[in-house]
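I trust your eye. Have a critical look at both lines of this record:
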Amino acid sequence: MINLILLFPLIACLILFIFKNKFLNNLMINIYAVMHFIVSLAFCMGWDFLPMIKPCKFFAVDDTNKIFLMVMSIVFLAVAVYNNGYLKNDSSLTRKLRHYTYMVLFFVFSMTGAILSSNLGAAWVFIEGTTLASAYLIYFHKTKHSIEAAWKYVFICSIGIALAFVGIILLTIATGNLNSLFYNQLYDNAALFNQFWLKLSFVFILFGIGTKMGLAPVHFWLPDAHAEAPSPISALLSATLLNSAFLMIVNVFRVMVLAGCADYARIMLLVMGFISLFVTAVFVYHINNYKRMLAYSSIENMGILAIGTALGGVGMLAAMIHLIGHSLIKASFFLTSGNILELYGTKKIKSVTGIMKHDRKTGWLWVASFLGIAAFPPSVLFISEFLMVKTMFLKEHYVLCALFLLLLTIILFGLGKAVIKMAFSSGKNEHSAEAENKKLSWTMYAPQIIMLILAFVIGVYMPQGLIKMIIFAVKGF
């Protein structure tokens, strides 16, 4: 089944190259999304449709990456459905749309490979692949701002990937004679590693892969890239790409824990996590582009994941819950921003008024996504953030807890101010007049509705199967 979801996008690209049929563009994305979801569900449920086919030893499903893969499949399926209506309104040339399909398939293939990699070196290669694929998708509209965003993305992420490569080299020095980058062998022999070189390698890997994850202070590509990419791509960037990078950091962090260097790694994660919250709190009040605003919200939530990981124990459990909730809600938020852009033709917050009046479904999705990301009950993010606060109290990190709550409150107010103004204000301009005459396809509403329902239902009742998956995923932290 691993072979199936890794080989299909390559075969699909070959079919598209041979037949060059416009209808096949969306069809291939939809087929891959459904296949990806079914295979991921099979892994989570313990099914095995193809027991006779053995995957390459460089790929494996374990208790941790299983959750990342399932979250990615759900978001990708939602994006594929949304894409059907989104591209219907796009006047781009058939060739340009075919290139878009190539890169979406290759982007998801690269993220899947990074998640399923059982080898740190292979994961690094696939993370680099995500940069190459998503750079074109960020540049898709070919405007002045999009090419600037794409170049900034490639430049900064390439530096980050290079730093991570240096970190991997330092890790091989720390391992001595092991000569292996397979995670299971790193875990088994971690206690024998040279701690000086291991700590130094973690610095480079955290900063390098933290660039892809969007952690401050190495986050600079993220606001521009999310703002300029098509909305379905913004959803994938925020809800799946950042998670793929986070998984790589989690795997290296596990090595640090087993090697007895946990305290060192936790301090670094806490510092980067709180810097991410601080950067978002500062900039969220000075943004006039609602897609950039959502990008800064992603930086905030990546910071929360880093903080939860650093806390360990229940904090790590909360981080996994937060990852699930953030992916579902932020994907919904970005897809809904695509609706707003389609209706109003502008990304400026001040130019968008009366969404509730012009498109009530989009308005309620916009408000519901905000309530979810702001952790209002019954959002699942309320549970994750509550558990993190509780963990800080139990570990007597009172100053960190107060700072955590203060920064979240500031960010909440900044986001809420913009969302409420856009949804409920009654001012009129040329953009609101344009919105009155537009109708959107049902495929541009249904994915958000389903993801938000999932996020809110899990916040009320979390199935036992999901609880067990999360508990198994965080063992050892």
